[in-house]
Amino acid sequence: MKDHFLVVDTETSGLPKKWDLPYDAKNNWPHVVQIAWIIFNTKGEELKRENHY
Fold it and tell me: Quick check: 31 and 12 in contact, CB under 8 A?
């Protein structure tokens, strides 16, 4: 897929409770709840759009 642009958007369950905790402290870190993307060609025309919850 050359000459294409990929735009990605994510939504999370919030912000970390504490920024200095390790990543394996799973209850501290937000979780991805939605991911979406759009693929455009170089003319700016939308080729594909997906949205997943």
Answer: yes
Task: Indicate the helix (H) or strand (E) that contains 49.
Answer: strand 46-52
Domain extent for 37: 4-52
Distance between CA atoms of residues 52 and 46, nearest Å: 18
- Domain count of the chain? 1
State the pLDDT at residue 1: 61
Spatial separation of the C-alpha atoms in residues 26 and 15, rounded to whole Å: 12
The model's pTM: 0.78
Q: If 0-12 CB within 10 Å is exposed, 13-18 middle and 19+ buried, where does residue 40 land?
A: middle
Q: How many other CB atoms are found less than 10 A from the CB of residue 13? A: 10
